[in-house]
Amino acid sequence: MSKAPPLLQINMLRRLMIGPVTLAVDEGDCLCVSGASGSGKSLLLRAIADLDPHEGQVLLQGEPAAVIPADAWRTRIGLLPPESSWWLPQVKNHFRNGMPVPLDHIGLSGDILEQPVARLSSGEKQRLALMRLLSNRPQVLLLDEPTANLDPDNTRRVERVITEYRRAHKAAVIWVSHDPGQITRVANRYYEMREGGLQARDIEGRQWLN
Amino acid sequence: MVELSYVDLVIAAGLVLVLALLSIRLHSNISKQLVIAAVRTAVQLTLIGLVLKTLFANASLGWVTLLAFVMLLIAGREVMMRQERRFRGWWGYAAGTLSMFLSSFAITLFALIVILGEDPWYAPQYAIPLLGMLLGNTMSGIAIAMDRLTHAAWEQRDIIEARLMLGERGDAAISDYRRQAVRSGMIPIINAMAAAGVVSLPGMMTGQILAGAPPVEAVKYQILIMFLIAAGTGLGTLVAVSIGSKRLFDERQRLCLDRLRQP
After folding, report:
1. A93-129: per-residue pLDDT in tens?
2. Is A112 exposed, middle or buried (0-12, 13-18, 19+ CB in 10 A)?
3. B230 and B119 in a common domain
């Protein structure tokens, strides 16, 4: 019996100064990426989500992007950008599929949904943007510094929610992070982005575990 | 109708000249522009007068079509120049020109054949002024709408891309800005219709009255023209904004701002 293809397979991906990047990510993987600013981490995530033209191929469960309509592709491979955007007046208007997890799991109370977007803090926006993304039930999460605006308590809460989601939905996560502690807590694979390529690194303070 | 002699025009030109001299005395530097614009008016209108005179004498479909296309191409260029972030290359010109062709030409043909029913239907006394008024007005509507659309795509690119990231298609992600663009393109003609006769006496009606037409007849023509312009502007704006919002995305539903020229 042939082995099932990896959940996400990246072959010879090139975009501007990035690449070629070849990488296989399996169900349940949490792969952290760090690297100097400007090294191309965000560009890599954008290329995987097919938001920018690129060379090479990305396959989801063995199917190349070209055979999956772009909107379906980006529903299944959800990208969380560092800055969230809101275009409707009320928070709740942005949630048509309901909440993926109760809001108190990320340290928010339910009445935040009734608020106008203009009154949200950057940390609240960041957590709500993650909820909005998870409500699409993506199979792959591309997270670009998802806890950059959060205090330590809420950072831990968000890490837990993402890990639970990954386990419950057999999802894969590619997580851009600069925090060694966070990488140790959440990742099972760790890469550093350098000169356009991904270089495997050991996870600090921890022996290999999978 | 009182026929104007060239002396009459020279007297009127004298008024402009007095104004120009006055602005020199006031050290305002507008006098040169004023004189150039006045000379352009005289030269351009004289030339088009001669063209129309020749055209009326040889009312063939070929000549009318030729002049119509020259007018269209000039209007198309004008639409392009009025957009700050227009599409690069051939598209910048084609999007506006094609939508003007579809709207102004279609509405003019419809009015000539179905409503006016003159024989021949392309009689240049009707065809050319009608097309001119339609082109002039759809031109502003389309230029405003396209400028608004491309501007919004640039300013709101984060929002549009955030919506793409959440699995929306390009047309859904830009739908709000598309609606706003169509609305801004239509506002001038809606305002003109609302103010007609109360605040402003439209030029064509005034002209017909000066030429001795009974006011009620002139009013009927003006109403016809206003409706044609509204239909033409609406149609042209919708077509232009559709072409534009398609062109802003590629086949993978990516927002392609590199297709816009930087101001």
Report:
1. 999 888 999 999 999 998 999 999 999 999 999 999 9
2. middle
3. yes
Q: Do A74 and B166 touch (CB under 8 A)?
A: yes
For residues B47 and B135, membership in a common domain is answered with no
Average pLDDT over residues B193-217: 90
Determine the distance in angstroms separating the CA of B249 from the nearest CA of chain A, rounded to an integer. Answer: 10
Does B179 contact chain A (CB < 8 Å)?
Answer: no
Tally of domains within chain B: 2
Please classify residue B121 by burial: count the beta carbons closer than 10 Å to its beta carbon, then call 0-12 exposed, 13-18 middle and 19+ buried.
middle
Pair B111, B14 in one domain: no
Q: Which residue of A has its CA nearest to B250?
A: A53
CA–CA gap between residue A104 and residue A173 (Å, rounded): 23
Question: Which CA distances in Å does A177 have to A159, A165, B181?
Answer: 12, 18, 40
- Residues B71, B19 share a domain: no
Residue B38 in 3-state DSSP? helix
One domain for residues B44 and B54: yes
Domain of B41, in residue numbers: 1-58
List pLDDT tens digits, range B66-106. Answer: 999 999 999 999 999 999 999 999 999 999 999 999 999 99
The residue of A46, A67, A76, A87 whose CB has the most chain B CBs within 10 angstroms, and thus the best one to mutate to test that interface, is A87
